[in-house]
Specification:
- It contains 18 helices and no strands.
- It is mostly helical and 405 residues long.
């Protein structure tokens, strides 16, 4: 549910961007700046969030993150109507949202690397990541119902309120009382961290960079989809119902994510090598998904576009059993901090790709260039991962005991 609400609040701006652009007279480049502002903030708290989670426990970091992004989401409409500089304030709100949400996934990676065995990580990460698609679906569903009747401001208020309730739930069931003290004490004992020398040695390993680069590519293409798909459908198929294209692709992604995680764990349990499974999952996430993006570079009708995009988004979720979970194979003792670095690089590349996509659309007046760029990025990241990727532990820390719950 936390991942669901994280993406629900994250997606409110892309879903409302078309209406806000018309209200405040933004160009495509200005809309790209607002949408890309999220990734400027998202870049800078990834490593910090993972490192703090490795030391003090992910529960505390998750509570701080959720309470803060709930306030920012609920306050965004107020900033939009504060003065005549809507573009500046909206970009600022997106940067703050990115800063506050940047710690979330590194915290999850840190917790899972400590408490989950190798053969169960794929399904668990896929289950949690499926919440992102549920959140996107929730944002699209709310927008379809509330935009016309209550205005775009209501989407921000609603997502902020729901996130605030989840923060209270985290405090009530994970941190209140003696339970949190036991958890933090255990985590400090299990997670002494790596020295600077060990960190430098890790960054000399090709498998680490292959994993990071693949994660960068899949994140940037996913962020581009999330940010620009509502605008693509609105402009390419103006008579289409928003409730269809804001819901169907993400509704498809939820069972796809769960299926991918189940298959990856099943293959490992059946005796397939971990590296082989990671490569298969990543090939589906970046290779198979790109095959369905390819027809979008030409002329397609609305039903075909929905089918192709839904298939592409569905296959992209298989990355939860590939590069995204590979950090727990390679460096379980510092998975939070390293995953934070991966997400930081992915957010930075997402910022570039989202903003550059807006520029391409403005200059070429064609969505085909954007889809071609996504295919190129996916193919490059997949090739690097297939050649240099690995699944053998590289942190070489004998002190890191694994607790199974």
């Amino acid at each position: 549910m936390g991942t669901c609400l994280l993406y629900c609040t994250r997606m409110t701006m892309p879903v409302c961007a078309v209406f806000m652009a018309a209200r405040f007279h933004w160009s495509k480049i200005e809309s790209g700046l607002v949408l890309g502002g999220f990734f400027w903030g998202y870049c800078f708290t990834q490593i910090l969030g993972g490192h703090l989670s490795d030391i003090v426990g992910g529960e505390r970091v998750l509570l701080m993150s959720a309470a803060s992004w709930a306030l920012i989401s609920a306050g965004t409409p107020l900033l939009a109507h504060f003065g005549s500089h809507q573009l500046f304030f909206m970009t600022l709100a997106r940067i703050l949202m990115g800063l506050l949400q940047g710690v979330f996934f590194p915290s999850l990676a840190s917790l899972c690397s400590q408490r989950v065995v190798e053969g169960e990580r794929g399904f668990l990460m896929s289950t949690m990541n499926s919440g992102s698609h549920l959140g996107t679906l929730l944002a699209g569903g709310m927008a379809s119902v509330m935009l016309e009747q209550y205005g775009w401001e209501s989407i921000f208020y609603c997502s902020g309120l729901l996130s605030g309730f989840w923060a209270l739930t985290v405090w009530q069931y994970l941190l209140k009382g003696e339970v949190s003290l036991v958890q933090v004490k255990t985590q400090n004992r299990l997670q002494p961290g790596l020295s600077r020398k060990h960190w430098l040695n890790l960054f000399k390993k090709p498998p680490v960079w292959a994993m990071v680069f693949a994660h960068m590519c899949i994140c940037s293409t996913s962020y581009t989809f999330l940010s620009w798909l509502p605008t693509y459908f609105k402009e390419s198929f103006p008579d289409a119902q928003a409730g269809v294209y804001n819901v169907v692709p993400w509704l498809t992604a939820i069972p796809s994510a769960l299926s991918g995680g189940f298959v990856s764990d099943l293959l490992i349990i059946r005796g397939y090598g971990v590296l082989t499974v990671r490569r298969i999952m990543q090939f589906c996430a970046m290779g198979a998904s790109s095959l369905f993006i390819l027809p979008l570079a030409g002329e397609v009708n609305f039903p075909s576009a929905i089918i192709f995009i839904s298939a592409s988004v569905g296959f992209s979720t298989f990355s939860s059993g590939g590069a995204s979970v590979n950090v727990q194979d390679l460096t379980p003792s510092c998975a939070g901090a390293l995953y934070g670095f991966m997400n930081m690089m992915g957010a930075f590349m997402g910022l570039l790709l989202v903003s550059f996509s807006g520029y391409l659309i403005k200059i070429t007046l064609s969505w085909a260039t954007v889809f071609s760029l996504i295919i190129l990025v996916n193919a490059t990241g997949l090739g690097i991962f297939l050649i240099f990727g690995d699944a053998q532990r590289l942190d070489q820390t004998a002190h890191c005991q694994l607790v199974v719950v």
